[in-house]
Amino acid sequence: MSDFLTIAGMPRQELLRLIAATRKNVPIAEGRSPNRTTLSGRVIANLFFEDSTRTRCSFETAVHRLGGQVFNLTPSGSSISKGESLVDTARNIECMGVAAIVVRCAVSGGAKMVADGVKCPVINAGDGRHEHPTQAILDVSTLMEEFGSVEGRTVAIVGDITNSRVARSVTHALSTLGAHVRLVGPPTLVSKSFERITQGPGIVSTINNLDSALDGVDAVMMLRVQFERAAGGAVSSDYRQMFGLTPQRIAKLASHVIILHPGPMNRGIEIDDRVADDPQRSRILRQVTHGVAARMAVLEMVLLETTSEKSPVTNSNSPAEHRIEV
What we know:
Layout: E1 2-3, H1 12-29, E2 43-48, H2 54-65, E3 69-73, H3 86-94, E4 100-105, H4 110-117, E5 122-127, H5 133-147, E6 154-158, H6 165-176, E7 180-184, E8 204-207, H7 210-213, E9 219-222, H8 239-243, H9 247-250, E10 258-260, H10 273-276, H11 284-304, E11 311-312
Helix pairs in contact: 1-5, 1-11, 2-11, 3-4, 5-6, 5-11
């Protein structure tokens, strides 16, 4: 069986296949088509050791849409609070006969540590500052629903790039598919070193001026400042003025440009209410629907495509699987 740990190193065709499966799942995610029975009789364990709403609930919903069962484990309700290690917790859960483990944790590389310690498939639901691969699938699926293809499109990702696992995964995916990615933020929160993470024909650039970065874009993804990762010290008091997406800024965008945000949103900081709720441009809630569909696709992939030995879906030699932070 296969793990799903990272977008880095994923072949283009594998990425496109997952996105195609995601888009086919959308009617089921919306409740317009009947649930499937793919996971009938199987139990999935959600090990969420960081707070989450969209990711955790969408994994739960995805399991139910596929006919399976799911349970959630959090630090306050587990032996993690007594000092048990993440890997030991996962090993104990595996012995209960679960079909797969979904892991969210604060440790970069934590999902890989769990995968190395268990035999059942492991899905990375976000590990520290490293990656958030299912988020990349849902984000690109949302973009492709809008544009058909992302090849040649320009996407600006704006905000706390340094601490964002979402930015890393989405940049890997978009560059693989030939999109141009502009990583935008103050110098304290975005580094030119990010330009080296491109893995395909797409171009990755870093820009410290939002107004110039918005010129010619097709989509803008806003990110919140991750105060829980000590990013607050890198943000000046004029952050909204310099890097907030305001109605004045979107008024200058071409009519086809759409707005995304992985959530949770800090309204009035990186994004204003009128922008987040704009009926013409905002695809933020659409991302949530694609989140269920994407997690359905990933669950089916890791559980239905078995091999003689468990191996990562993505390139096991990719440096992004190790605890390396840009």
